[in-house]
Design a protein that fits this description.
binds BIS(adenosine)-5'-pentaphosphate; AMP kinase activity; cytoplasm; 3-stranded antiparallel β-sheet; transferase; 212 residues; Adenylat/UMP-CMP_kin; binds magnesium ion; single chain; 5-stranded parallel β-sheet
Length: 212
């Protein structure tokens, strides 16, 4: 099964993606996670990505398309299927993705679109905490870890207020044409994102299980 998960920053893409890949056994491909890993490893790609990400801007398409193409070409993708999270983010990326998939003889089965009002997202992003060891995402209020110790968790650099504002602006502007592009192809499944995490997952899970 080959899926995309879409939604504004903080909609819950990463949270749902972790549950989807666990249940359905497909490969999780998150461009944001790939860039953050490159930043942590202080590679050239990381250095470049950081200069855009910290401001809340998109990394240039040619860079992002390149890493996605390379990742989609790896063997596990063909074997297990994939869930793309955070890509495509521009209409150009969506068109490039079509070309990449054609070249690799892969087909997209569905787009999971997590819908939520943008006014709810600042609260989600400002309370997000990530476990330093496991990389798992939690929320101080909405999804607190059982054994919370402040020193075991960090906050993302781009969850600071100025970057959040910019990320929301950029993603609201760029996201609509992409959803329209996939609606035309009858691939979009809308999911109500303003419910508890487990209830969102019930809906997501039901949708994926219902795909032919
Ligand atoms: P990326 O890492 O993709 O970030 P994003 O799209 O801004 O989305 P987030 O990861 O912030 O949100 P999410 O939807 O995953 O929410 P989460 O599940 O964590 O991209 C970061 C940057 O990388 C971009 O700005 C750009 O610079 C660059 N980049 C990445 N891809 C790119 C591309 N294709 N092209 C160019 N540049 C690219 O949840 C958020 C919080 O809410 C958590 O604390 C969580 O616990 C909580 N939460 C989740 N669900 C619920 C719920 N149902 N109820 C209550 N709380 C919830
Ligand atoms: Mg995410």
């Amino acid at each position: 099964m080959n899926l995309l998960i879409m939604g504004l920053p903080g909609a819950g893409k990463g949270t749902q993606a972790a549950k989807i890949v666990e249940k359905f056994g497909i490969a999780h491909i998150s461009t944001g996670d790939m860039f953050r890993a490159a930043i942590a490893n202080q590679t050239e790609l990381g250095l470049l990505a950081k200069s855009y990400m910290d401001k809340g801007d998109l990394v240039p398409d040619e860079v992002t398309n390149g890493i996605v193409k390379e990742r989609l070409g790896q063997a596990d993708v063909k074997e297990k299927g994939f869930l793309l999270d955070g890509y495509p983010r521009t209409l150009e990326q969506a068109q490039v993705l079509d070309t990449i998939l054609k070249e690799l003889d892969l087909k997209l089965d569905a787009v999971i679109n997590i819908e939520i009002e943008s006014s709810k997202l600042v609260e989600r992003l400002s309370g997000r905490i990530i476990n330093r060891k496991t990389g798992e995402t939690y929320h101080k209020v909405f999804n607190p870890p059982a054994d919370y110790k402040e020193e075991d968790y960090y906050q993302r650099e781009d969850d600071k207020p100025e970057a959040v504002k910019r990320r929301l602006e950029v993603n609201i502007a760029q996201g609509q044409p992409i959803i329209a592009y996939y609606r035309q192809q009858n691939l979009v499944h809308d999911i109500q994102g303003d419910q508890e995490i487990d209830n969102v997952f019930k809906d997501v899970s039901q949708t994926i299980s219902g795909l032919k």
